[in-house]
Amino acid sequence: MALLKPMDVHTEDARNEAETARLPVKIAVWASLLANFCLCVLQLYGAISSVSLSLIATGIDSVFDLGSNVLLFWAHRTATRMDINKWPVGGSRLETIGNVVYGSLMAAVNLVVIVESIRSLLTHDGDDADLNQFHIPSIVAVAAAIGVKFLLFLYCFTLRKNSSQVRMLWEDHRNDLFINSFGLLMSAGGSRLEWFLDPMGAIIIGAGVIIAWTRTVYKEFELLAGKSAPHDFIQLIIYNAMTFSDEIEKIDTVRAYHSGPEYFVEVDVVMSKDTPLWKAHDLSQQLQDKIEVLPNVGRAFVHVDHETTHTPEHRKIV
């Protein structure tokens, strides 16, 4: 059914959804920012006061959560204010670059935690009597953080499709639920059961964070490298370009690929060689304008030709 909708309908639907979600998205971003600031203080208190490696790992994650919120907010704000003369393609890729930088820093810090935990395992004297003290205020602080994260997770879950910012926040809250819960469990186990559970928990948390962010960074690199748009989106462009005007006889080539989170679209259409230049120009310009207002489209380029036997445009032959 989506394929049969005119492009104007797709654009209007996206505009209405964006307008409806504007306030909830703003609430999600600011609530996450303020909550992460408070939880960062709580979890750092819990980590420092308990001297638990597992809680230190969760505390470091909370610090980076706050940094992630600030980075996302700054990148989004800067992207919307970039000088079009200095940055002709806009600032959409700035958020993607920010995610790559942040993910790399996150992996580096957690690697330090893993190394310290391994050192703790290797240098332990084997006496189980020196278990970490079971520090109740630390446990309460981390448990409170888990509760707040769960509420933020539920709220962002309903809005994750309306904003790339909220989608990143939702994934972050989801991951934090697992990390904090596991860290709390391993810290308590290291205090009450076996000493090695605490450093083992820190190693597992650090490794999990590194793996998760490595996957995220890889996906962000795909967007920067120009990964193709989904097949359904390309089919939508083909159908709407073909039905746009009776003057368009064929669709030669359609490409849609990422340039950051948004798509760049290239369409090669065929018109009769007798079509006046002014008409060919006006129709291609109108089609380009229609495509560029579609959701997630950053730029569109429409090329007009009179035959399809030539080598496809914009392709280097090695």
UniProtKB/TrEMBL annotation:
Keyword Transmembrane among record annotations: yes
Signal sequence coordinates: none
Keyword field: Membrane, Transmembrane, Transmembrane helix, Transport
SUPFAM superfamilies: Cation efflux protein cytoplasmic domain-like (SSF160240), Cation efflux protein transmembrane domain-like (SSF161111)
GO cellular component: membrane
Record-linked InterPro entries: Cation_efflux (IPR002524), Cation_efflux_CTD (IPR027470), Cation_efflux_CTD_sf (IPR036837), Cation_efflux_TM (IPR058533), Cation_efflux_TMD_sf (IPR027469), CDF_Transporter (IPR050291)
Domain Cation efflux protein cytoplasmic positions: 240-306
Regions that span the bilayer: 27-48, 54-75, 96-115, 135-157, 199-218
Entry keyword annotation includes Transport: yes
Residues in Cation efflux protein transmembrane domain copies: 29-224
Gene Ontology biological-process annotations: inorganic ion homeostasis; intracellular monoatomic cation homeostasis
Main location: membrane
Topology versus the membrane: Multi-pass membrane protein
Compartment annotation: Membrane
One term of GO molecular function: monoatomic cation transmembrane transporter activity
UniProt xrefs under Pfam families: Cation_efflux, ZT_dimer
PANTHER family: CATION DIFFUSION FACILITATOR 1 (AFU_ORTHOLOGUE AFUA_1G14440), MITOCHONDRIAL METAL TRANSPORTER 1-RELATED
Protein name: CDF-like metal transporter
